[in-house]
Amino acid sequence: MPDLSEAVADPLLRIEGADKVFHGGVVALKGLSLDVHMGDFISLLGPSGCGKSTALRMIADLLHPTRGRITWTGSHSTQDLGVVFQEPTLMPWATVKQNVWLPYRLRGKSFNSVQDDVLEALKLVGLEKFQNAYPRELSGGMKMRVSIARAMVTRPKLILMDEPFAALDEITRFRLNNDLLELKQKIGCTVIFVTHSVFESVFLSDRIVVMAARPGRVIRELRVDAPYPRDEEFRTSPEYAAFCREASDALHEAMELAA
User: Fold this and answer.
1) Quick one: which of 6, 36, 69, 163 has the most CB atoms within 10 Å?
2) Do 49 and 172 fall into the same domain?
3) 179 lies in the same domain as 107
4) Are 239 and 227 in contact (CB under 8 A)?
5) Cβ atoms of residues 146 and 138 within 8 Å
6) d(Cα 231, Cα 8) in Å, to the nearest integer?
7) How far is CA 135 from the centre of its chain?
8) What counts of helices (H) and strands (E) characterise the chain?
9) Residues 110 and 197 in one domain
10) Of 156, 181, 213, which one is at a domain's C-terminal end?
C-alpha cells in the first residue's frame, strides 16, 4: 500500500467538478472530482456509457471538460503521461522496437539515442527476443505487451489504460494482470485503469471508483486495503472474495441507477 500521508501531501493530478456535454446535449460525465496521488492504482469501474473512457480522454487532453477543471500539480504535465488503448494500435509496417520507439520519435529523438531505453522496456515486458518481429507475427497478448512497453518507455508518472485486456482470453488476462502489477512496482508509476470487470479491478487496484450512467457520474469509491505484491494466493483468499462482493454490490447499484 502507498503511504497515504505522503500521497495526500503530494497529489499528481486533481479533477474538480468536471462535466462533459457532447453536441445534442448528451451528458457523458457530470461532476467528476478525483484526486490522483503518486503511486495510486485506480480502477474506473462501471457499465457502458458511464463516462469511464471520456474521463481518460479528458485526463489525456484529447477532450476538454465542458465545465470544471483538470489540474496537474507541481511541474507535472501531459508530458508525464502514457496511454494504453483497448486495441494495441500498433503500426503494422513497423517492427516491435520501432513501435516502442514511437513516443520518443514524436519528440524528435533518433532511435540510436534511445535504443537502450527501448530495449529495456521490451525486456521488462518479456519481448526483447521479438524486437525485430512485426505485429502480424505476434499473438494478441504479445501485441498488448508491446503497447504497454510503448506507454512506459519514457517512464511516465501516470499511465492511462482503457480496458487493455478486455479482448483477451481469461488465462492471458490473468497473466497480464500479474505482469502489470510487477511492472508498476519496477517503474514506480501511477495507473488509472478502465474496466468492466469486478475481479480485475479488485486484484489490481488500491482504489476503485464506481460509476453510473445517464449521466456518467461517480457513485462510490472503494478502497482495497490489501498489500502488494498480489498473487494467486490473494486471488483465492476470503479477503479477495469479500472485496469482490463489495465491488459487485456497488456495480449493481450503478446499473440500477442507470436503468
Assistant:
1) 36
2) yes
3) no
4) no
5) yes
6) 28
7) 22
8) 9, 9
9) no
10) 156
The number of folded domains in the chain is: 2
Helix (H, G, I), strand (E, B) or coil at 52: helix
Q: Cα-flanking dihedrals φ and ψ of residue 43, to 5°?
A: -105, 135
Using only C-alpha atoms, the chain has a radius of gyration, in whole angstroms, of 18
In order, the DSSP letters of 101-125 are HHHHHHTT--HHHHHHHHHHHHHHT
246 with 141, same domain: the answer is no
Q: Which amino acid is at 58?
A: M
Cell of 152: 512506459
Q: pLDDT tens digits for 93-150?
A: 999 999 999 999 999 999 999 999 999 999 999 999 999 999 999 999 999 999 999 9
Amino acid at 149: A
Kindly report whether the global pTM for this prediction surpasses the value 0.90: yes
- Which of 115, 169, 175, 171 is closest to 148 using CA atoms? 175
Determine, yes or no, domain membership for 212: yes
Residue 19 has φ and ψ, to the nearest 5°, of -110, 150
Q: Residue 103 is placed in which grid cell?
A: 513516443
Cell numbers at 154, concatenated: 519514457
Beta pairing class for 11-22 and 67-72? antiparallel
Rama region for 194: left / alpha / beta (φ>0; ψ in -120 to 50; rest) = beta
The DSSP output letter for 138 is: S
> Using CA atoms, how far apart are residues 72 and 100, in angstroms rounded to an integer?
26
Count CB atoms within 10 A of the CB of residue 103.
Answer: 21
- CA–CA distance, 55 with 194 (Å, rounded to integer): 10
Q: Are residues 93 and 30 located together in one domain of the fold?
A: no
Task: Take residue 59 and report the three cell numbers written for it.
Answer: 485526463
Q: Which amino acid is at 95?
A: T
Residue with cell 489540474: 71
pLDDT at position 10: 65
* Cell 494495441 -> residue: 88
Cell numbers 498488448 correspond to: 144
> Which structural domain range is residue 123 located in?
88-156
